[in-house]
Amino acid sequence: MVAGINYDQKSQSVKAVYAWEHDFKNAEVHGISGAPLEIVLTELPPKKALTIVIFAGYNNIKHVEQSEESIANRYSQLLTRARQLSDKVICIGVPPMVHSKSDSWYPEGANITNIRILDVDARIHQLCGAHYIDTPSFWADSDSDDGIHPNPHGYKKIVDHTKIMMALKWNVPGF
User: How is the chain split into domains, by residue range?
Assistant: First the structure.
């Protein structure tokens, strides 16, 4: 899962706003933001008891020179590797941007449309099927302080949906 980070507009710095360890105590890997998932997944040993939660995609989406299809193809490769490690893989959709918050501190992001994000999310949903958490369906502008990264409330909503899926699909204990 990605690091619980947010961009603080007042201090113009990135800060930690959510600790995944609090809600996922038994997790072996937490909060790797910006790390190539291919590397993370190659370092994990195969365990069928392992649950893998992938909340990734924005760092690809922001590169507008990459097509939605190429982003989906890369995600598909990650998903193939994750499924080799575990039968329990959850994909979390990328939240929509709130441009009224993000454009002031991230002007390059003004070119990234929510249509693009939703298109990539739809492709991720297709790849993940019933193990997809449709973040855009429950996301509110108030779930992000900077318009891109979830704030503590936004992260908590994602965690709650993830826990529900883990319990319903696989009866994963300890959460």
Answer: 25-170
- The Cα–Cα gap between 156 and 18 comes to 8
pLDDT digits 0-9 by tens, 128-139: 999 999 999 999
Give exposure, 7-34, as e/b (b: 16+ Cβ within 10 Å). Answer: beeeeeeeeebbebeebbeebebebeee
What are 55-80's pLDDT values in tens digits?
877 777 888 888 999 999 988 988 88
- Select from 21, 20, 174, 166 the least CA-distant residue to 88: 166
- The domain 25-170 belongs to what CATH superfamily? SGNH hydrolase (3.40.50.1110)
Q: How far apart are CA 58 and CA 128, in angstroms?
A: 17
